[in-house]
Automatic annotation (TrEMBL):
Keywords in alphabetical order: Antioxidant, Oxidoreductase, Peroxidase, Redox-active center
Active site as annotated: 45 (cysteine sulfenic acid (-soh) intermediate)
Matching CDD domains: PRX_1cys
Thioredoxin domain mapped to chain residues: 3-159
Family to which the UniProt record says this protein belongs: Belongs to the peroxiredoxin family. Prx6 subfamily. Belongs to the peroxiredoxin family. AhpC/Prx1 subfamily.
SUPFAM superfamilies: Thioredoxin-like
Organism encoding this protein: Sphingobium ummariense RL-3
Domain of life assignment: Bacteria
GO cellular component: cytosol
Zinc found in the keyword field: no
Biological processes annotated in GO: cell redox homeostasis
An example molecular function term from Gene Ontology annotations: peroxiredoxin activity
Protein name: Peroxidase
Family annotation (Gene3D superfamilies): Antioxidant, Horf6, Chain A, domain2, Glutaredoxin
Length: 213
């Protein structure tokens, strides 16, 4: 059965470039980004893993732990790290799961036989500190991911967890948001004393960056 939003991310133990990992224990109190790459020593994956390493300060700022996965063994991961460092100018500082027995790939439905029965697709699972799956993205093996979008989505999740709001189309951090329709106008005024704009009864826009907020 496919994993759905809101369910607890399946736990597992598997070898990685950082040793044996028990996934839930490894997450601790952090958010997690579990992402798979189709195969080691391939061009798109090399650029992706380098980008994830370059984004270290952004992950730390959001209390996020990234962790990669492919069906190649640990020894191949370590050899590939040298190529990534040479071509992308950065060292990998996050673990890569060696899923040679495809246990984790099967658990997270990362192998799509109609695409390619031998490799994992480019899956992304964003998991919150309570171990719930909050975002799922699936790319074909040929299309590299946009990690800026993944960070943007995490910003939205973390912001909307804290306030009774949602983020509109193409939202970027610092831009206006929409107020949850579940809030009455009275409650909205209490929570957002800076004021808000009502476009429709169900569409109310507020700037969280207003003075005093």
């Amino acid at each position: 059965m496919a994993i759905q939003l809101g369910q607890i991310a399946p736990d597992f133990e598997q070898d990685s470039t950082h040793g044996r990992i028990s996934f839930h224990d490894w997450l601790g109190g952090s958010w997690g980004v579990l992402f798979s790459h189709p195969k080691n020593f391939t061009p798109v994956c090399t650029t992706e893993l380098g980008e994830v390493a370059k984004l270290r300060s952004e992950w730390d700022k959001r209390n996020v732990k990234p962790i990669g996965l492919s069906v190649d063994p640990v020894e191949a991961h370590h050899k590939w790290e040298l190529d990534i460092h040479e071509t992308q100018g950065t060292k990998l500082d996050f673990p890569m799961i060696a899923d040679a027995n495809t246990k984790v790939s099967a658990l997270y439905d990362m192998i799509h036989p109609e695409s390619d029965p031998t490799v994992t697709v480019r899956s992304v699972f964003v998991i919150d500190p309570s171990r719930k799956v909050r975002l799922i993205l699936t790319y074909p093996p040929s299309t590299g991911r946009n990690f800026a979008e993944i960070l943007r989505a995490i910003d939205s999740l973390q912001l909307t967890d804290a306030r009774s709001i949602a983020t509109p189309v193409n939202w970027e951090p610092g831009e206006p948001v929409v107020i949850s329709p579940k809030l009455s106008d009275e409650e909205a005024s209490r929570q957002f004393p800076q004021g808000y704009k009502t476009l429709k009864p169900y569409l109310r826009v507020v700037d969280l960056q207003a003075p005093g907020q």
